[in-house]
Amino acid sequence: MERSERGERILEVAGELLVAWGYGRVTIDEIARRAKVGKGTVYLHWKTKDALLLTVVLKAKTRALQRHLARMRADPLEVLPSRMMGAYYGDFLAEPVLRALYTDDVDVLGRLNDSSKKEFAELVALGDRVLCRHLEALREHGLMYEDTDVRHQQYALLATATGFFTAEALLFDRAPDTPEIRGGIFAESLRRMLETTPSYDAAAAAAPEIIALYEEFEARSAEEMRRQLRN
Amino acid sequence: MERSERGERILEVAGELLVAWGYGRVTIDEIARRAKVGKGTVYLHWKTKDALLLTVVLKAKTRALQRHLARMRADPLEVLPSRMMGAYYGDFLAEPVLRALYTDDVDVLGRLNDSSKKEFAELVALGDRVLCRHLEALREHGLMYEDTDVRHQQYALLATATGFFTAEALLFDRAPDTPEIRGGIFAESLRRMLETTPSYDAAAAAAPEIIALYEEFEARSAEEMRRQLRN
DNA sequence: TTCGTGACCAGATTCGAAATCTGGTCACGG
DNA sequence: CCGTGACCAGATTTCGAATCTGGTCACGAA
């Protein structure tokens, strides 16, 4: 049995348990039992329980990021905030761990949020820079309005995204029926808020730089996940 | 000493205490002591502790609503979502009770949120209808885009507002400096998202109906506050 | 008679110490 | 040499006793 294969199974089980039980109730014993390994084996892979569960979350985020990259490579128009976030929205709601992260919040993730804030502060800062550069690239190619400070556009984007994710839990009883429709409203809102008339050629010109930005972010995420391992 | 004056002082003290201590730590004894009345006197005014604190919140909301009405009466352009919410944003952040309601949430308000959800379900539903009619009126006067379902516009508005309020606490470390700037970004976002080129005349034509809607809401709120009293 | 009050009660909440559980280690065995 | 589970210290839970708090109401002042 391969070491990495074993690690994958532990991660998988940990993810299921995290969603089903929530951070506080997940135990390393139960993870080991379900993954059919000894408890000590878990600690051969990750430094601590937090490191393991942080990896679960980071992995889920990375999967969404990879799908995002694939979409951008296949269709340059996916670099537009509306397209990017609309698709992200669907991915996030479909990924149970991330859905929990954005809707149930405290109950499921417990202090994992605080933990990750400290542990990943650097990564979050990089994410901020990446998004800002992304928007700047779009502006340079005439795909976004330039009559506003890019920092303000970034804040508007983040705040609006926060709103649509939070609304998922907060307004669930007065929201339009399907996630697809809500995602559509989200995308349309961002388009009107930020984007000029889309141009395929401009998007194709901007895409390489933007893709490179997210590839760097992906690499940095992978590095961060490695940093959570024992060796 | 007037009965209503006494009630006002109790409300005021209760508000201060609610913000300073949070729902769980506020006691009727302490409210009575600070308001210099007997404990039983508090119960001559309100049915329960929850009724009292619910009234504190409702009163704060009503004050913001009244300022909103005054602004609309003074300047018809204030009926535009961007203008309305931009000013609301400032008011809400300046009103400690409401600021707590939208930023600290659980810690300060405790189970008051759930309590109000049940108690004020009807009022919330009316608020929903009022907002929807408000948007419909704007559309009829050509002040908002009509190429989208009004329900979807309402959801976008609510989700975005939720986002900017939540972001106030969630993104505090990476947000633009002043509340005024953040309020400006919020307003500008809504304008681009929902509004056509503003016309004073169209706004003036739409204003009376819209003002009437919120006056009805204000009346209904006052009625609800009365319903929390003993007699 | 009317209005305000605080002593009082039941039930909720808190406290604290004992009992249990869990993250993390490491000596052992396959 | 790699995987393991018994083991330990410290964290968490339990649960009954002690305390606190929302709400009442008999009483007394006006």
From TrEMBL, chains A, B:
Alphabetical list of Gene3D superfamilies matching this protein: Tetracycline Repressor, domain 2
Domain HTH tetR-type: 4-64
Pfam families listed in its UniProt record: TetR_N
Keywords linked to the UniProt accession: DNA-binding, Transcription, Transcription regulation
GTP-binding keyword on record: no
DNA-binding region, residue range(s): 27-46
Protein name in UniProt: TetR family transcriptional regulator
Protein source organism: Streptomyces albospinus
